User: Which sequence fits this backbone?
């Protein structure tokens, strides 16, 4: 039994194709329960995110499994099998393990080291196991992948460095204020960028979100979407006393926030710090505001700077993460080999046992004069011979690292003793 | 037993230095696990340290802390305890890399300074002796801690304000937490210092008949007390949060250092 993965991702296939193959929850149920009935596919998990669609499976004949799965996909998704095959990648055995571990740790993601993929992978696995289409191999594989992803996260700092502007702003806010719970935020201008940052902030548990926008109606819509409160655009500086973080992304040809307003506010706030995130171009906040004590102002360039440094740091960390993964791949491969060996070992033992019993039976029929005690002695001698003969091959099989030609040891033994025919 | 005590002394000293070094490593090599290991070493060393002090107190009996050797070891022990408690709750690894070498400095102080606080005279028979000394050295420990917190605050504030963001920046506690702990610890230190000055005055009264007499250490202690009083007033009443307040407290610590090391009683 070998693991395999067939998939497309953001590097191998264009977005249209990823959209065609994307499987929603309902569709995935259908897909999995039908696909797993294919003769050469024993287990299957379908992982579908906006950047990748991957099918993880286990099969005795991976090349046949690949053909069948491609055929099945082309029928199921109404896609040309040749185009699909051209854009798809296919890994088997140890390559699958390496790929899976990388995906789970976010090393294969568009944003290096992003953590969402792990949750999506867990969800995909959960769905497949609820359907009952995963068994020993994929169970073991997925659990190990989650473990490795966690290990990568604790042993490297791949997730520690923010790589998007709005995420960087949030990390900085946390560095100034600690926990963002109980903090209040004012957002000036409800554009696209502002919305993204608002979502980031909202998910970090801020207490209150005020939104000021030139067109009140738009502000109200946004406020409803993200759960904030509208305030009038004309005198938003009044709220400076109350809020800790001010995010500006309004279109304006002059500074909307000047030194004087902030200085007044900070005096009345008794120097409680204020954090200005100015993602508007041209800028909304006068750069001189940063000179005021206890005020921190970051504009888009500053944030980009943080992001650039961190991208580099992440690439470095990714190298270390690969080291961690490589070690885990080796370990897991060894364990899988042992797991693969289990059925071979037991059928080998069974076969010998059967022969032994059969011959004993014949002997006892021919020699009815053998009574209780002597019968037992003959019996135990026969079993002892079988066990002693089997002992060395069994031990060698359990260690099972060697590979002869195309076949691994297990299948060689199966052929040699015709274990599959009985 | 003397040899044994010496062994414990140098053992704890080296363990603190090793732990301090290990706390520093994660920032260079990105091995967060080392910090966990360093904390364990610090705890072990701290327990040995406690054993040393306990044995010494049992041996020497009342009054406690009569020589600077023991007093500075006691101060170091309190600093490590405060650090370990804070480290449980916040990300204080880098602070470990700073605090433990400073604790090692207290070890050096205890080796090379051999001031006897009024020993052998009528002073030591007063029950106020140990009370005063315990207050004073607790205050020294807490002020040393606030000094380190203050320094880190100044550096981190500078980094955030002028956008010089190094890689390890993310493992420091946030500005707000640093500032709050700094102010709270200073309040505690201030109370202890007040206690030290007060009990010192009562002690002096019980021996000499005067609360105050011409004593340089008393004078400097009061100057430090005034600076810290100013800080607390500015911080809690006038809202001097942030860099200015912290800088003021750093000046206070310089005066405290001078009080303990620069002058002696009776001079």
Assistant:
């Amino acid at each position: 039994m070998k693991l395999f993965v067939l998939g497309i991702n953001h590097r191998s296939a264009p977005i249209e194709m990823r959209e065609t193959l994307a499987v929603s929850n309902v569709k995935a149920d259908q897909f999995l329960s039908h696909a797993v009935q294919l003769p050469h596919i024993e287990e299957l998990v379908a992982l579908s995110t906006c950047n990748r669609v991957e099918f993880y499976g286990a099969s005795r004949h991976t090349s046949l499994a690949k053909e069948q799965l491609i055929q099945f996909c082309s029928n199921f998704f109404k896609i040309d099998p040749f185009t699909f095959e051209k854009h798809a990648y296919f890994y088997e055995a140890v390559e699958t393990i390496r790929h899976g571990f990388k995906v789970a740790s976010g090393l294969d993601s568009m944003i290096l080291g992003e953590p969402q993929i792990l949750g999506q992978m867990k969800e995909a696995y959960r769905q497949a196991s609820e359907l009952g289409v995963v068994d020993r191999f994929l169970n073991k594989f997925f659990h190990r992948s989650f473990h490795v992803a966690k290990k990568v996260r604790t042993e490297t700092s791949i997730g520690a460095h923010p790589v998007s502007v709005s995420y960087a702003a949030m990390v900085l806010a946390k560095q100034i204020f600690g926990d963002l719970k109980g903090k209040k935020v004012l957002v000036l201008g409800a554009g696209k960028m502002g919305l993204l940052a608002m979502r980031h902030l909202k998910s970090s548990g801020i207490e209150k979100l005020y939104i000021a926008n030139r067109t009140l109606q738009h502000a109200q819509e946004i406020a409803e979407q993200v759960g904030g409160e509208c305030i009038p655009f004309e005198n938003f500086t009044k709220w400076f006393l109350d809020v800790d973080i001010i995010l500006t992304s309004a279109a304006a040809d002059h500074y909307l926030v000047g030194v004087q307003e902030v200085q007044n506010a900070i005096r009345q706030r008794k120097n409680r710090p204020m954090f200005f995130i100015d993602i508007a171009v041209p800028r909304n906040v006068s750069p001189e505001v940063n000179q005021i004590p206890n005020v921190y102002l970051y504009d888009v360039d500053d944030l980009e700077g943080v992001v650039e440094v961190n991208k580099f740091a992440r690439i470095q960390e990714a190298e270390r993460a690969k080291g961690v993964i490589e070690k885990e791949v080796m370990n897991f491969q060894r364990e899988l080999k042992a797991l693969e060996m289990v059925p071979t070992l037991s059928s080998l033992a069974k076969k010998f046992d059967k022969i032994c019993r059969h011959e004993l039976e014949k002997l006892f029929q021919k020699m009815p004069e053998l009574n209780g005690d002597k019968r037992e002695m003959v019996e135990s001698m026969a079993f002892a011979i079988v066990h002693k003969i089997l002992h060395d091959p069994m031990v060698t099989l359990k260690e099972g690292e060697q590979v002869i030609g195309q076949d691994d040891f297990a299948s060689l033994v199966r052929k040699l003793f015709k274990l599959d025919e009985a | 037993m003397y040899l044994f005590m010496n062994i414990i002394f140098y053992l704890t000293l080296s363990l603190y230095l090793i732990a301090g070094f290990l706390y520093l490593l994660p920032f260079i090599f990105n091995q967060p696990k080392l910090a966990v290991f360093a904390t364990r070493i610090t705890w072990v060393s701290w327990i040995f340290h406690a054993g040393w002090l306990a044995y010494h107190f049992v041996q020497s009996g009342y009054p406690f802390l009569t020589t600077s050797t023991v007093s500075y070891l006691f101060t170091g022990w309190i600093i490590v305890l405060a650090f370990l408690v804070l480290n449980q709750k916040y990300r204080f690894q880098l602070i470990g890399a700073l605090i433990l070498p400073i604790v090692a400095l207290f070890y050096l102080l205890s080796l090379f300074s051999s001031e006897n606080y009024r020993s052998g005279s009528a002073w030591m028979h007063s029950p106020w002796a140990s009370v005063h000394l315990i207050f004073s050295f607790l205050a020294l420990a807490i002020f040393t801690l606030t000094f380190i917190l203050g320094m880190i605050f100044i550096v981190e504030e500078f980094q955030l304000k002028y956008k010089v963001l190094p890689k390890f920046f993310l493992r420091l506690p946030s500005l707000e937490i640093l500032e709050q702990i700094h102010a709270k610890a200073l309040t505690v230190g201030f109370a202890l210092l007040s206690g030290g000055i007060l009990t010192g005055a009562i002690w002096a009264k019980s021996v000499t008949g005067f609360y105050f007499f011409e004593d340089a250490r008393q004078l400097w202690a009061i100057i430090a007390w005034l600076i810290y009083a100013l800080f607390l007033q500015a911080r809690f009443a006038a809202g001097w949060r942030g860099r200015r307040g912290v800088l003021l407290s750093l000046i206070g610590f310089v005066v405290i250092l001078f009080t303990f090391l620069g002058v002696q009683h009776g001079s």
DSSP finds eight helices and no strands in chain B. The interface with chain A takes residues 30, 32-33, 156, 160-161, 163, 165, 167, 169-170, 172-177, 238-244 of chain B (CB under 8 Å). The two ends of chain B are 36 Å apart (CA to CA). The CA atoms of residues 245 and 262 of chain B lie 25 Å apart.
